[in-house]
Amino acid sequence: MSVGKPVSELGRVVSEFRPVFVRSAVFTAVASLLVLMPSWYMLEVYDRVVNSRSHLTLAMLTLLVLMSYVVMEVLEWARSEMLFDASTGFESRLAQRVFRLMFQANLRRMPGGNLQPMTDLRTIRDFMHSPAVVAVMEAPVSLVFLALIFAIHPLLGWVATGAAVLQVLVGWLNERGTQPPLLQANRMAMAAQQMADGALRNAQVIEAMGMLQNVRRGWLQRQREFLGLQAVASDRAGGFQAVSKFLQNTVGSALLGLSCWLLLHNQLHGGAAMLIVSGILGGRVLAPLVQVVTQWRSVVNARDAWMRLGSLLSQVPEGVSTMALPPPAGHLMVEALVAGAPGQPQAILKGVSFGLAAGEALAVVGPSAAGKTTLARMLVGLWPAISGKVRLDGADVFGWNKEELGPRVGYLPQGVDLFEGTVAENIARFGDVDRDRVQAAAQMVGLHDLIEALPQGYETQIGPDGAVLSGGQRQRVALARALYGDPVLVVLDEPNSSLDEAGDAALSRALQQLKARGATLVVMTHRMSVLAAVDKMLLLRDGQAQAFGPRDEVLAAISKANQSAQARPQGAAA
């Protein structure tokens, strides 16, 4: 027994709205059949009213056709509302998942770690109520029209079938001709957008060092390539659309002329009236295909968005809900940890092991590129390990639900990122602002008086990336955010890199207060001022633990190793 291909996550979500699409298709079929009412009305007026000269017949026919118009418009309106509701429901169903997906992909250094997944979701949403989808729903009715043409005369049916095959061929050629430049154009558009975003993020560096002209040149090159490829695709698509409409217009006249020829030879079933009917039906047979060709760019965009988003969803599956764990006490254990940047084959950390009891403070030291920042990310569960584990109270930190663990953890990355909002909102991690806890965190890092001096105090808007604050102020706000809520595990990556002497002293006091509260501390640092507040030290070099233990013992070992390294060249020279 063969096993079918598993349904993708996007496919499962779309299937939830299948009843809506089925009802929409039924409404579309009825409305498409009612499109023939004007032609029927015209034939009946010529046949019945003109010959009988009956005002009552004319009135009844007019009333009937008006009622059909009302029904047709109501059905189309209802179909439009149902498809729109289904598309918005589809987006609502996936919005939170895609929002989390972007962050997960970014943490794992995957291609979708940007705003593209959200754009793809909107593209699919818009396509779900687009004319192209309506054209697909009208396709079964086209088969009914084709059957009616065959009933009038098989020759007419085969001509209409041949025209439909030609329309399909035009659609296939349109796909082959426009897909490559459209795909390349989308890539260049994203590249140009990313370069523009990068330029805005680094505006100060660009302005200070006169890089704007070079950056603008690179952006313009990508933009020109994007516009050129888009123009190529547009020209090709326009040509195929013209051919498609030509076929639709031609087939109606061809069927009319062929019907007349058959009538002259007494071979047209239904009499002279079928001359007009066959031409009208021929145009309706090709209408959905013409609509699809006309809307082909939206079809291609939706298909590409579906493939990109579906692939990313499959690569980053939704986390399985696990049993809630009790709040951690702070016992940290790193077991033979081998880790590197996601997506990169080489390991940065190579078998690092150590343990901290709850309330202990550790300083991680070592030269640049020793693996300190990677270790910081691993300790808070940002990156998966190649092998080994990071455990907090015995539980794997990476697999721990971050919505549960996050409020118990304080993390200050090496690159400080603040968000547009107030000072209080940033310190409170954009949750419910508890003014007492916000002020306590600010006071712990010596920031309270500086905040009170701002125009609106804690309610001061700091702008994008904290633009109204200095570098040291931004780092201290981020430090206060890390300490907000009395976390049991605090990981600080170079917390004093932008601090002045007063800020450095405030940091040392904050670390002492955290130790007194029983928090477990890990500080990555190059500066000796932090060492007075720690119990243990870990020396990293080339991703390996060179020394670990009580602070004074490790300092003595480092000093002895330095003295030996300095004496060795002298002995060699002697």
What does this protein structure show overall?
The chain has 574 residues and is of the alpha/beta class. It has three domains: 130 residues, Up-down Bundle (ABC transporter transmembrane region fold); 154 residues, ABC transporter type 1, transmembrane domain (ABC transporter transmembrane region fold, Up-down Bundle), CATH 1.20.1560.10; 242 residues, 3-Layer(aba) Sandwich (Rossmann fold). The chain contains 19 helices and ten strands. A six-stranded mixed sheet has the order 6-7-8-3-9-10, with helices on both faces. Strands 2-1-4-5 form a four-stranded antiparallel sheet, covered by helices on one side. Helix 6 runs antiparallel to helix 7. The longest helix has 53 residues.
Number of strands: 10
Overall 3D form: elongated
Global mean pLDDT: 81
Kindly identify the CATH topology of the largest domain: Rossmann fold
